[in-house]
Design brief:
Elements lengths: L11 E9 L5 E6 L2 E6 L3 H19 L3 E7 L2 E7 L5 E3 L24 E4 L2 E4 L20 E2 L8 E2 L9 E10 L7 E2 L6 E4 L4 E5 L5 E6 L12 E4 L5 E7 L2 E5 L7 E4 L5 E3 L6 E4 L2 E6 L2 E4 L7 E6 L2 E5 L5 E5 L4 E4 L7 E10 L3 E8 L5 E7 L5 E7 L9 E4 L2 E4 L2 E4 L4 E4 L3 E7 L2 E6 L2 E5 L5 E3 L9 E3 L2 E6 L2 E7 L1
Parallel strand pairs: 1-4
Antiparallel strand pairs: 1-2, 2-3, 4-5, 5-6, 7-8, 9-11, 10-11, 11-42, 12-13, 13-14, 14-15, 16-17, 17-18, 18-19, 20-21, 21-22, 22-23, 24-25, 25-26, 26-27, 28-29, 29-30, 30-31, 32-33, 33-34, 34-35, 36-37, 37-38, 38-39, 40-41, 41-42
Organism: Nocardiopsis sediminis
Keywords: Membrane, Transmembrane, Transmembrane helix
Protein name: WD40 repeat domain-containing protein
Length: 476
Amino acid sequence: MSRDPGNGGPPHRAPVILVVSPDERSAEVTIQGHTRVVTGNSPKETRNAALDLAAGYAAHLGTSVLINARDANGAWQLIISPTGVVRAAGGTEIEIAAKRAPGRGRRGRRVVMVTAGGALAIAAVAGIGVAAVPLLPGLGPSIQVGPGEDPAVTLEGRSAPPGFTTRADWRLPTLPGTRPGVAPDGSAVAFIDPDEQVTVVNPEGTTLWSAGLPLPPGDIEGAPTFITDGQGDLGLAVTGNGRLWQWPAGGGEPTELELPSGSRVTFAGTSPLVLGEGTAQVPDDGELRTVAIPSGYGAILAEPGRVLTAVQDGPWRWVGLDGDTTEVEPQAPDGAGDIAEVLTGRSDHMIVRWSAEEGDQEILAVHDSGDGSVVAQTPVDPALLDGARWLANGSVAAYGPVIVDLDGGSATVLEGFAPGSAAGGFVYGEAAGAPVAVGPDADPVNLPADVVRPWGVLDGRAVIIADGDLYALSPE
């Protein structure tokens, strides 16, 4: 099989079929005969979700994939690379001009696919979260290696990610078409096994607990996600069919919550946040509790007992479930004028674009979400930030082509870099059309076209999926 890094080589022979519904609130994605339905609250969300699946399939194969896309306006062919870069089949990458959403800045995230004048416009942006979704058969037996023994499992046919070897401490079979979730602290990984059980294992591959799924595996939206309860213990959550299920730490019976019509669940924080039309809710004592969001603010994420909210060009606020509010005024970076736009945020950091006191460029700053202090900053052409999203793992992060050393407190613009995912202390993406991995030093490491990207790191082991099996690769 040809291994195309996404720079114009032939795509994989089995195309992805992508059909967007007339109302653009759902799309069917068919990969090798298996159809998944994705949904979104807007055309942008629907198309992003559909392309996420196609990007994961391309990453799994290690080669570009042809997409036969169709919506109410017509049909087109696209090609998506293993790093999530989309281009027109037989054409070049085309930048789009998305409509400005109400209440959003002029440089908000762009629609990945829109129709205009009867032609499809696509953006080769880093907003597509590339995930190595296993969509091929080939489940193998579970093989585990005891401490101190020579590894008996070797990853074959794929190259290991930087810092890791093809030797695996263990391998476990998963259900094709599903993907794993790795605990933020690297203490566990959750996956769906061939018996359609959600299973949680520790870094040694030993099962901590397992349970039957409350819904068909194909209806799960995304991957099992670790969440934190009020005591700091890690539970697990899945969503699908308009419901949210939460297992307590250690397993047991999950709590089932029916989601309001038209709402969506985000796991940007350590707890689920249910967003509806102008509303924000969080699970609390077996039910959804509405959080009083300040007027003009939007909810970004949830942590146990509080929700992070923000406005486009001002301070952000942490809102408690009891209504108590803590406002955080961001510190102005060196050489900055006023806030141009609060771009996004996570539990630890807020990403803000500032005007510059001098020159045509602006300043991108990473702030501590708790006290507003500047973690890192760099001058940047704001046009380079179009379509960007925040990716972080360990001490390295990226917002579009801006690489951030979170520990060292520096930020570097790596022009031409399009990030796709972050894990194992690297941001993975493309530079000049070739696959690369970038660490905190912002020095790209060239990768083989068939490199497998980790989902996360499990106590020093890279968690990857290849041919339907879950591997824990040993470090170098």
